[in-house]
Amino acid sequence: MRAKTELFEQFAAAGKGLAHPARLELLDLLAQGECPVEPLAAAAGLKLSTASAHLQTLKASGLVRTRRQSTSIVYRLAGPEVGELLNLLRRVAATHLDGVAPARDRFLGRRGPDDPACEEIDRQALLERVAAGRAVVLDVRPGREYAAGHIPGAVSIPLDELADRLAELPDVEVVAYCRGEYCVLSYDAVRLLTAHGRRAVRLADGMLEWRLAQLPVERPAESTSV
What are the Cα distances from residue 72, in Å, to 37, 60, 148? Predict the structure, then answer.
């Protein structure tokens, strides 16, 4: 009994890292690539001390690791299975908790079939349209996340710059994507693009799911610009 209890205590220690919404958001951000605590805190809307405390809990739970970069501590997911765990947790919650769908719709601003951001395509359709020259892939995440890895051939225009840089996009359909299925950035990008008369759709998921599918990931040295 003692050995069994010790084993399940270890499982519970890993689960502790998942038991707070702020820690889940930090994992979501780290699924985009490694990052120091300061930009992580800013992206999550947390005080630096609060973000640091949550990151220490995640580290103690075995879900993240660190390395030193000059005077900063850089965090990363402990392994690809952590991203898989995050994705599975979301799927379980969406399947078995009635509150997930309405909370998702409020957060993403989904307004029903008349909302242009509700039109989406899957990864296969994206690849086919790009191969045929009928679409450009637009990454609307912050530049740091784009630099950590992006869909091959995607161009980077962060959402907060998009309104001023519309002219940089070629005159074809735009497929916007961001961090993952529950990221609002691509929704807002499609609404902005369609309001300016551009044909735009969302990728149904995002970079988290792209990585989990083990699809190719491009980095800046290999990138093409608009």
Answer: 8, 19, 17
What is the total count of domains within the chain?
Answer: 2
**Largest CA-CA distance found in the chain, in angstroms, rounded:** 67
Q: Do 208 and 131 fall within a single domain?
A: yes
Q: pLDDT by residue (tens digit) across 10-59? A: 999 999 999 999 999 999 999 999 999 999 999 999 999 999 999 999 99
Give how far Cα 75 sits from Cα of 45, 70, 162, Å.
Answer: 17, 13, 28
Pair (46, 110) in one structural domain:
no
State which residues form the domain around 177. Answer: 100-222
145 and 204, same domain (yes or no): yes
pTM attached to this predicted model:
0.91
DSSP 150-193: B-TT-EE--HHHHTT-GGGS-SSEEEEE-SSTT-SHHHHHHHHH
Question: Is 118 tagged catalytic?
Answer: no
Q: Per-residue pLDDT tens for 125-158? A: 999 999 999 999 999 999 999 999 999 999 999 9
